[in-house]
Design goal:
The protein has helices at residues 54-66, 154-171, 210-230, 282-287, 293-304, 308-316, 318-328, 334-351, 363-374, 380-393, 397-404, 412-425, 427-434, 440-451, 458-468; strands at 4-14, 70-71, 74-75, 78-81, 91-94, 101-102, 105-106, 109-118, 122-125, 131-134, 141-147, 183-192, 202-207, 238-243, 248-254, 264-265, 272-273. By secondary structure, the protein is an alpha+beta fold.
Length: 470
Amino acid sequence: MSYTLTIGLEIHAELKTKTKMFCNSANDPFNSEPNVHICPVCMAHPGTLPVINKEAVKHVLKVGIALGGKLADFSEFDRKNYFYPDIPKGYQISQCKYPLVSGGTLNGVKLERIHLEEDTATSIHEGSKGSLVDYNRAGVPLMELVTTPTIHSAEEASVFARELQLLLRTLGVSDANMEKGEMRVEANISISDKPGQLGTKVEVKNLNSFRSVERAVAYEVDRMTKILDGGEGEIIQETRGWDEGKQSTFSQRKKESAHDYRYFPDPDLPKLQLSEIPELSPSVLKKEMPELPWEKRARLIRDYSLKPISVDLFLGDFVLGKFFEDTVALLKNKKLVALAENYLTSDVVGLGKGGVSVGALTSTSFAKLIHMIDEGKLSSRGAKDTLAVMHDKGGDPEVIAKEKGFIQTNDESALKAICEKIIKDNPKVAEEYRSGKVVAMQFLVGQGMKASKGSANPETLKKLLERALK
């Protein structure tokens, strides 16, 4: 039987602030020492009172503006009650009825809400030895974005999450590193054989990579389909975890409803009338907004005719993207821009040790190198070797190329001697060429480039070899 897949996403992102959400403990959940960034407030000592982190509120409102959501005028924080060791208070401060942002869209997917809450501590399970809890993460500002159930493929869900990660990084509100748990995706998945009607929803947690999102959805669709097609049992509404090692989901608990958490307004926190806070007004926030990813993507393609893979690279790596734009500002035409794009996305990226890095390069020196390549002063080999030196040590490309003997030569008298020696040292290959094996010329040219240490103009070299072999 054919089924329609429907997915709704709930994405949590830890926000970049100096302190936690409701206290002045440092927002540093990845400190190597456990339980050092804690205080009486985030550890729920009796008599302590929380204070709202204004910067965290500002971050969420900026995300809302970027996604075209409706910013709340009135908002409040609620207590979400449940017992677990990673919540020392016995409840989590979150938002229920009055989120900071309602609606909005991203990649054509409609959003339900974006709200702000505090993160939980980190539980460390050691099997028979028991479990430990590190409270460095407890109380870290956590943004939760909830989509409407309008996604219909695993790929669409993954693309949505990638675009959100890029937005959060562009706004500077979160590093959103999924491997570190700074961004966590939960997928609400259902299948139905009735058009326009949702099936029983299953929530899958512990998705810490985009690939895991896609694989978890695929696994659940297969599992649910077998249940429905087999006619035995039924899909139950539950929370399931994702086991990366087994590449499968497993049941964790029956899915709770909102009333199970007994939400009620937190009496220790003030209500927020955002219109009364000048620095959080939409007009002020809009002035602080950077160029958004989709705006920049369209501009890079429109202005520079870049390849899609290059656009994604420059969007995802802010340092490389800025370096590219600083460089092309010094170049005169699209031909040079295309040359700069190619060398940046292949050679410069390849030179980075342990990740993409421009090293000691400057946009001025790199632009000069591009001009030298275009003017025929450097061969491809000479350009790569010069670039490697520039990347590691910096310097002027012309000075480096002259010192290292990389300047491309068109001096036929000098190259003629090299050609004669190449033919003499490779008589068999020379004879093969004379016998009609045209590809043999590639080997001879290669030997000539090697003998000249990459400084020979390959076209001139080929012309002289052909003349000598007649």
